Structure prediction request, 356 residues.
Amino acid sequence: MELADLGYNETLEQFRIENGLDQFETGRVIAEHKERYIVKTVNGELEAEITGHMRFTAKSREDFPAVGDWVALTTYDGDFALIHRILPRFSVLKRQAVGQFGEIQIIAANIDFAFLVQAADRDFNINRLERYLTICHASKVRPVIVLTKIDLIDESRLYEITARIKARIKDVPIVAVSNETPNGYKAIEAFIEKGKTYCMLGSSGVGKSTLLNNLSGKNIMKTGAISRSTSKGKHVTSHRELIVLEGGGILIDNPGMREVGIADTTGGLETTFDAIFQLSQQCKFKDCTHTQETGCAVIDAVEKGELDKTSYEHFLKLEREKAHFESTLAERRKREKEFGKIMKNYKKDMKKNEYE
Prediction:
């Protein structure tokens, strides 16, 4: 196997040479668990940790490796390595870290496509889809909506679900697959290209592991039995992994996410809710919040039935969430800056006292 089979390209190679990293081995992080990493190289898989210098200079969790990252590393004792540097990322899927205000959690790095997986029986939720779409658009990752477990519903229900998605979400492909038969898999395989990286985003038990197994043609991931009481699969994936498919695509399986907090949404909300942002150009006031202002084109469209009311309400909720996250992040950075000044002055005084 060559690095190109894992998605390595000329841009990464040029950066590696220009930055004097040619004395290090190059690999891609394929799994991560509590700051321990599995890195795949041309010589096999290695267990790795970051260097003390990387840990000391890291300003946030974003400066730590994530699944999908390309890294420069040094190998020790055959199967252990130290990661010295992360090569530039061309895309980063991220969300608010659960329970940590103002912190960002990287879901995966260097992703080309994201399969947004929802079970068609009971998990289906358009609001959640819009959350996934927002983080995809913010990261310049192309989304594909995948409806699983269609064998558990009839054709009329599937048509209804698809129509509801198309009414609120424009220009995003929708693929429906069965967990029991090959139905739908050719449509997914049509998106997979050699050297491109794909990830799966979805809640626990929606069938991501089954989807991965069927795409790879192997029983790579364990799958949970279907619960008779809930008709949902049991969650079995506890960490992120990267698998090279026989067709040449690279697929990352993520654990189920109960919460999808909006983090860095630069361009994300604008793209997901393009209709609302287009209407906002016609609002009477430039700083219109689209909540109660006179002359708001968005509110007018909702009242006339030209804009889906549920989508509009969800947009307002995500806008509030984004504003809260950004204000919390700004406050945290301000505290860190003040603490940095205190430490700098402390070190300065200590050094001064040494010479007195």
User: Anything to note?
Assistant: The first helix runs from residue 10 to 18. The CA atoms of residues 7 and 109 lie 12 Å apart. Confidence is low (pLDDT under 50) at residues 223-239.
